[in-house]
Amino acid sequence: MFHLPRWLWLNHVPAGLDLTPEQYVELKRRMRAMGQAQQRGMELGRRVVLRLAPATAALSLIFAWWIIWLAQAKLPPARFALLNVVSVLLFQVVIWVIVAWSINRAMAPMVWRGLNEIGFRVCTTCGYILDYLPMNEPKCPECGTALHPPSARAPMPVDSSRVS
């Protein structure tokens, strides 16, 4: 069975974690706080724009070239209309994939930090779930990033039966 990637519908929580509704609310609250802190420096917006601008500009140029070619082609009106509608829809789908991927790359590290704050051990670089690793593990087995010891904050209680 084919499954769409989670980032296409802007879900940045790693696939192996099943959060309770209370944990989702707490994660969203922490994300909002992190986002407001970063918006003061506009770092998040700058990262998204720097990822979006080149791909969107290139795709827009290709789309403009296609529309100009389509307008100059001697096609029957029905075929012209069909190709025009299909090309616009395809353009919108590709733009959505680019936007969703860019937002994912900018937001996912914040989600991973928020998950760490509410008691889940997740690598803040790659999103690898670290709950089953020993606490003294020096680095992430997925990306090799050095791991920091768990924070001294009191995490939200984690129901271990909900981690799959």
Q: Which descriptor suits the 3D outline? A: elongated
Please tell me the overall pLDDT.
76
> What is the distance, rounded to the nearest whole angstrom, between the alpha carbons of the first and last residues?
20 Å
- The gyration radius over C-alpha positions equals 21 Å
The H/E string reads HHH
Helicity, as a percent range: 55-70%
Features:
mainly alpha; elongated; 3 helices
Topology:
Elements: H1 21-41, H2 43-72, H3 77-117
Helix pairs in contact: 1-3, 2-3
What would a concise description of this structure say?
This protein is mostly helical. It has one domain (18-162).
Question: How is this structure best described in words?
Answer:
About 55% of the residues lie in helices and about 0% in strands. The chain is mainly alpha-helical and about 160 residues long. It has one domain (about 20-160). The model has no long low-confidence stretch (mean pLDDT about 75).
